[in-house]
């Protein structure tokens, strides 16, 4: 089922406008805002808004297919709003992968040359 029991995070406060953020895109399902500590000239965080939120992608179920599809479907539009035609999508999924906020989020990173493979 949906993980409505997940503890809230700072991203819920951003959704609720309890703390300010630089919003790039918003609709009923998702919110995209600029990362407060960018790793590139463009660094946008894209999150699901609702209480069916996922803490980590590895906990996704079939119940989350709509919201996951919605996030992926909006990435290109959000990147275009940010003036990007090349970018990297990152999900840090779990503490050892440097996930620090346990509300599923996609990093949209661009605006400079990005090396591959990453560190
Ligand atoms: P993670 O390491 O969990 O994948 O990424 C969390 C991201 O959220 C980090 O890049 C961090 O800079 C960003 N972040 C954390 N707190 C805030 C905040 O209050 N506002 C904004 N705009 N970004 C935040």
TrEMBL record:
Active site: 105 (tele-amp-histidine intermediate)
Motif (Histidine triad motif): 103-107
Segments forming domain HIT: 10-119
Superkingdom to which the source organism belongs: Eukaryota
Name used for this protein in its record: Uncharacterized protein
Source organism (scientific name): Chrysophaeum taylorii
Full protein segment contained here: 259 to 377 of 377
């Amino acid at each position: 089922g949906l993980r409505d029991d997940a503890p809230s995070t700072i991203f819920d406060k951003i959704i609720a406008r309890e703390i300010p953020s630089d919003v790039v895109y918003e609709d009923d399902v998702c919110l995209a805002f600029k990362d407060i500590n960018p790793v590139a000239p463009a660094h946008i965080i894209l999150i699901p808004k609702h209480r069916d939120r996922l803490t980590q992608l590895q906990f996704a179920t079939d119940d989350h297919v709509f919201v996951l599809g919605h996030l992926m479907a909006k990435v290109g539009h959000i990147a275009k709003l940010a003036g990007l035609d090349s970018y990297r999508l990152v999900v840090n999924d779990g503490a050892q992968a440097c996930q620090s906020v346990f509300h599923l989020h996609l990093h949209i990173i661009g605006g400079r040359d990005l090396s591959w493979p990453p560190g």
